[in-house]
Amino acid sequence: MRSGGYKSGFIVIMRINRELPLRFLPAGPEFLDRFLALQTEVAGPVPDHSVFHPDTPDELAAWLSVPGAAFAALYDDLLAGYTIASFPVEKSGHPGLDIGIPEAEFSSCLVIETSIVHPDFRGRGLQQRMIKDLIESWIQKGVSHVFSYCSPKNPASLKSLLRCGLGIRKTVLKFGGFERCLLHMDAKDGNR
């Protein structure tokens, strides 16, 4: 017993090997509840919600209905993380407008919308691996521009996107006036 009259507890920290036996697979509508649960777990403790803009259930459901737009990383049956992309079709609000992409190329653009990693799996390059896999799969299908928006207050995600070949092109206000870095990669020639 400690002097305060309570038992001292033990905190057991289990370090999982850096090379985890993860399965990466395309995610469809059957993952909606799991994606929402992980998003809630990750967004819950974030003190400044301008760092992370949660997706609505309708947004997630729409993205999950597009084959190949989402990838899940599973450790056994636990959702370790996920990445979702979209394909902007409307000219209004298209990220290509912000950096002068020719309108003729708008239909070959991919936007990395969300990439979330369970807290127990952070620090192992999982987010970067998921983003790279998603980008590579769509470049093979003809995507010529890759975009993403990331809070400058989220250095871990920003670093992952930069390591995946995207470069910061400018800062814009999104999601109700929150500052975001607009990242871009010209997939035709690999230029940021």
Secondary-structure arrangement, i.e. CATH architecture: 3-Layer(aba) Sandwich
* Strand adjacency order, main sheet: 1-2-3-4-5-7-6
CATH fold call: Aminopeptidase
Estimated structural class: alpha+beta
CATH superfamily: Gcn5-related N-acetyltransferase (GNAT)
N/C terminus separation: 59 Å
In DSSP terms (H or I, runs of 4 or more residues), the helix count works out at 5
Helicity, as a percent range = 25-40%
Query: What is the number of domains?
Result: 1
**CATH class designation:** Alpha Beta
| Mean model confidence by pLDDT | 84
The global form is globular
What topology does this entry show?
Layout: E1 22-26, H1 32-43, H2 57-64, E2 70-75, E3 78-86, H3 95-99, E4 109-117, H4 126-139, E5 145-150, H5 155-163, E6 167-174, E7 178-186
Question: Could you characterize what this model shows?
Answer:
By secondary structure, the protein is of the alpha+beta class. The protein has a single domain, classed as 3-Layer(aba) Sandwich (Aminopeptidase). The protein has five helices and seven strands; from the N terminus they run βααββαβαβαββ. It has helices spanning 32-43, 57-64, 95-99, 126-139, 155-163, and strands at 22-26, 70-75, 78-86, 109-117, 145-150, 167-174, 178-186. The chain has a seven-stranded mixed beta sheet, sandwiched between helices. It is globular, with a radius of gyration of 18 Å.
